[in-house]
Design a protein that fits this description.
Shape: globular
Radius of gyration: 23 Å
Strand content: 35-45%
Number of strands: 42
Largest sheet: 4 strands, antiparallel
Structural class: mainly beta
Distance between the termini: 39 Å
Helix content: under 10%
């Protein structure tokens, strides 16, 4: 199929809307007898301009950046067949781009299905020398796209479902020296598995082999290809303290990587690290004055690295959400904040991947949301655009999610939260607290238009004046929940992945959180795979807390003001 950028057209056409420069505007709600389609975050344009990036070995002025001893390694992503690996990445608009072409690079997903992670695996025996690319959906479906060349077609081969059990899937290169790149995958409890390539595009991966446990100590896993020239793939890993380690390949399928060697510290400055082929690592800064800036490191034959070299301009990587082959746990589902002003209009701010928010976009007329309880949730389908859940009290507690009517009777609840997938099935779920303090879980169907019968989580939740969450706060790839007491203490409830008992024992984040009139969960603000927090004071100042290590947050940083114009934020 041709690579196009039309997957959201069907959803946008589903509602009658008027496009204005500030956003998409719809008519206000109809009468209770004839409810109208609701405004949607999907109507807000997410613009992105791809940076112009050149592989270091293609730039004559940068030719000396490569370390002299690095071995030639198996190509994984040479899309235009010019001898240099190309970058593929997902941007804030949900589309895939590549440095091999200025055009949008799409892999023929189902409508509104965004690639959560992208894993280039080089030529695996397709019709030509173009590479194959693995892509992971939010629902855990892993697909292989054969002959994924620029501007051509890519044949889809579904590898299978259930891959949501892993929080990281990547290719270190050729592990067993058979000329084909292999795949490793890490479970949410830190078990690492090896999948050897078969050369059969209809069944490209063999049965998994356990490598071992304990790999949860790393928040980045990065393949390096064959660094020392022995024909075996090697591996880099970064721990949550920012230390980078190097593992050499052994050739043993039961223990394919030797003991680790410390390369150095300070790598916590980067939100994503990736192998760019031909003996280079590429790293992007997380936040601060040079946020979103790319740097390259030449790789020496012993795994050590040459001094870094800046690639492109400062901030070139802003708007790039996930690099293909990137070491971080990928994040999808929500990267926005919504506020309602006194007129009843909603405004949305997007996370820009550098720890800041975009300029606001209006996407509802005044009065549209007056008197309506709403929550900006993680996406209930696989389009990576957050949804609005709202309850119409005057219409028998009718619940809407995006443009879908879920049902009536939801007026019994005083809090709704959409933190993501709590049940472990790859589909986002909904939490609802009733007025007696009992919390219930509604499993989502992956389409955003229905939920399963509720599951009682437990009582005692009435002591919290705020429940929030959007993504992973613990670094294990599971969705978690935050809860603030009336006294201002914030607790983290780590997700378990079990719908019957969805949370592990709570952990205190700290006190003093009643400083904020609004606490919101924007998702991942700086593209490191970890969910962050925003707080708005009574004077309208906006503060950011970045999730740094499991269950820990940075000191607050003021990133905005004037948010006092809103009477509700989510």
């Amino acid at each position: 199929m041709r690579f196009t950028n039309s997957r959201r057209a069907g959803r946008i056409a589903a509602c009658t809307a008027l496009a204005l420069s500030a956003g998409m505007i719809l008519a206000g709600p109809a009468s209770a007898d004839e409810p109208a389609p609701r405004p949607s975050v999907k109507k807000v344009e997410r613009s992105f301009t791809p940076p112009q990036l050149t592989h270091p070995k293609q730039d004559s002025a940068r030719a000396g950046a490569a370390a002299a001893g690095a071995a030639a390694t198996l190509s994984l992503s040479d899309l235009d067949l010019d001898g240099y690996d190309d970058l593929i990445y997902r941007a804030i608009d949900g589309a895939l781009y590549t440095t091999a072409s200025e055009s949008v690079f799409e892999l023929g997903y189902r409508d509104d299905d965004v690639a959560k992670d992208i894993v280039p695996i080089g030529n695996q025996g397709g019709y030509d020398a173009s590479p194959e690319v693995l892509a992971l959906s939010e629902d855990g479906t892993l697909s292989l796209y054969a002959d994924a060349g620029v501007g051509g077609s890519a044949d889809l081969h579904v590898v299978g479902g259930g891959w949501q059990v892993y929080n990281k899937i990547m290719s270190p290169g050729d592990v067993n020296n058979d000329g084909l790149a292999d795949v490793v995958a890490r479970t949410k409890d830190g078990q690492l598995y090896l999948y050897l390539a078969t050369g059969d595009l209809d069944k490209p991966l063999g049965a998994r082999k356990l490598i071992g446990g304990g790999w949860h100590v790393y928040d980045q896993l990065v393949g390096s290809g064959d660094v020392n020239g022995d024909g075996l793939a090697d591996l880099y890993a970064r721990d949550t303290s920012g230390n980078l380690y190097f593992y050499t390949g052994t050739g043993s399928m039961s223990s394919p990587f030797a003991g680790r060697k410390l390369i150095g510290g300070g790598w916590g400055a980067y939100n994503q690290v990736v192998n760019w082929g031909d003996g280079f690592l590429l790293a992007r800064t997380s936040h601060g004055t040079n946020a979103g800036t790319f740097f390259t490191y030449g790789i020496n034959a012993d795994g050590t690295l040459a001094p870094r070299q800046q690639l492109g301009e400062v901030g070139d990587g802003i708007g790039v959400v996930q690099l293909a082959g990137g070491g971080s746990n990928p994040h999808t589902g929500k990267n926005s904040v919504v506020g309602r002003d006194s007129s009843g209009a909603l405004y949305m701010y997007l996370g820009m991947t550098d720890g800041t928010l975009s300029q606001r976009s209006q996407y509802s007329e005044p009065d549209t949301y007056s008197g309506i309880d709403f929550t900006n949730t993680s996406s209930f389908n696989s389009d990576d655009f957050s949804d609005i859940a709202e309850v119409w009290d005057w219409n028998n507690g009718q619940l809407w999610v995006d443009t879908a009517v879920i049902g009536t009777g939801w007026g019994i609840y005083n809090a709704l939260v959409g933190p993501g997938d709590l049940s472990g099935d790859g589909k986002a779920d909904l939490l609802a607290r009733d007025k007696t303090g009992v919390l219930y879980l509604y499993k989502g169907n992956g389409e955003g238009d229905a939920f399963a019968t509720r599951i009682r989580v437990g009582g005692g939740w009435g002591g919290f004046n705020k429940l929030l969450g959007a993504g992973d706060y613990t670094g294990d790839g599971r969705a978690d929940l935050l809860a603030r007491t009336t006294g201002g203490e914030l607790f983290l409830y780590p997700g378990s992945g079990n719908p019957i008992t969805p949370f592990k024992a709570r952990v205190s984040i700290g006190t003093g959180w009643n400083t904020y009139k609004y606490l919101t969960a924007p998702g991942d603000l700086n593209a490191d795979g970890k969910a962050d927090i925003l707080g708005v004071t009574s004077t309208g100042d906006l503060y950011r807390y970045l999730n740094t290590t499991p269950g820990k947050f940075s000191g607050r940083s003021k990133i905005g003001y004037g948010f006092g114009v809103y009477n509700s934020m989510s």
